[in-house]
Amino acid sequence: MKNILSKKSFWALMVLLNVIGCKSNDEFLKENPETFYTVDNAFSTSAQVDQVLVGIYSQIRDLWANPAEEGWIFVLRGNGTDMYDVASIRRGATFNNYGLINVDNGTFYNIYSTYYQMIAKANLALEAAQLPQISFSSEAEKANIIAQAKFFRAYAYRNLGELFGGVSIVTSVSKVPQYDFKRSTRVETYQFAIDDLLAAEKDLPETTVSGGRVVKGAAQHYLAELYLAMGTQLVADGKASEGQAAFAQSIAYATKVIDGGTYSLMKTRFGARSTEAQGNVYWDLFQENNVNYQNGNKESIWTLQVDYAAYRAEDGKSKLPYSRTYGAVFRDGAKDHLTGTAEDVGGRGIAQMIPTFYVRDDIYADKYATDLRNSEIVFRRVFNGNVKTSPYFGKPVPWDVLYNGSADATTNMNNRSLVYPISCKIATDKYTGLADGENMSNLFRDDYFIRLSETILLRAEAKQRSGNKAGAAADVNLLRSRANATYLVSAADMDDSFNMILDERARELVYEEARWNTLLRMGGTIAVDRIKKYAFWPEAKATLTFNYNLWPIPQTIIDTNKDVVLEQNPGWKR
């Protein structure tokens, strides 16, 4: 009772002092801040400027790894494309029911605004780096900070251009409200990002002592991608000669990365678990302590950093929740034969995003079956029954049993969405942290933003768009040869709808590439056609009744830009 009376007396005294101290209502409400931070006075050291960049690295890590398991980020990772869908238990999170997807969809706004947040941070770092009171250890340090900021600004515009087309180019920190932003064209957006990357390329290092920071090869990779994207759009705009010039630049920048001497495909066993007989070189790429260039992985160009010690101490987002978010739920879909949350079922999966049958089976059908990327250690298809009452206890459960365990067709379809092969990219047989109380939800390894394999596939596409199908096939075969694939493709396999390129990207980059970026930058009806063909659930084909190759500008953005009309992208309605 004494403590309660004391607290009441304290707050009564505070109210009394406030009343006595107020001379008038006007003076009480008048603000007189002793300190007001602006760009000009908020920075005093180069380390503070670098912290702005660290904030962007952190944002991109969280945007990719998705430690908070946000639904819109699963879309960014590919949900709703030809490669991924949602499980039956998550039909409400679908992103291929076009009766629900329109210009007011919050996913579009979240993605669009997130990249502008990144642009704002990059602009802040660029302005702060030029302040007269900031001293750098050398001109090289200053140039490197500016290069990283320009890289990130280009990275954001690369994503905006590929996903939304022409957007507003913002090059300075906004100090007053603005309602008159104008859209650039898609080509202009690409060109702005290219210009930033050309500037960044000159001052980024070839390599770094520790992993995670962007390097010259990352800028060159995205230059290859952006010139490819720009060339594709120029050709669509009827500017074939300009498009071909852009494709030539794409090939040139990709070649700098591929043949420049810094990077090379890993073709022999390497790293922390290379002496274990069960693995292969492709599997090695995704083991703990093997992901960074500094680990001896010569095809690693840019990575996100995960640190288990930091996770335990203070950074709860320093994890890859892939076993949980991407893992299968055998305990629901095949409960008569498989249960639990241990390594034998791929960890503690809850199936936030699932592979379509295109990813599971189609890309490895027939002559494409023999391939390290389809090997049991890489893409696990054999699961031994662990339910004692199952006739398959201790033996492999056939997939026709897993898929057709019920007499009801709807139940079987639902169960098929919950059980599927498990990639070594999302699960492991040696989970870190179990002794500390961790379950088998998270991986604590670093992860790729850019791997040389994707650079090779970009060059293959640029060659094909330049009319060199034989050269495109040769590039695809660089990856197929490394994967010990028995079938090597030829020029005749390089179809005009780019199915071969897209199939090889799915084989090589499952759970790695940003599939929406790929499909939308390719233009035409490629995205729509493939979604209709490969989506797991029938809603996509039934409701996708219009063509598009851009996402809509979020209606909120259009509505708040009241002084200038922003035109909506074709095909989208409110």
UniProtKB/TrEMBL annotation:
Domain SusD-like N-terminal stretches: 28-228
Pfam families associated with the record: SusD-like_3 (PF14322), SusD_RagB (PF07980)
InterPro entries (alphabetical): SusD-like_N, SusD_RagB_dom, TPR-like_helical_dom_sf
Name the UniProt record assigns to this protein: RagB/SusD family nutrient uptake outer membrane protein
Gene3D superfamilies associated with the record: 1.25.40.390
Alphabetically ordered keywords of this record: Cell outer membrane, Membrane, Signal
Protein localization: Cell outer membrane
Residue stretches making up the RagB/SusD domain: 402-572
Signal peptide stretch: none
Family: Belongs to the SusD family.
Keyword Repeat found: no
Tagged with keyword Transport: no
GO cellular component: cell outer membrane
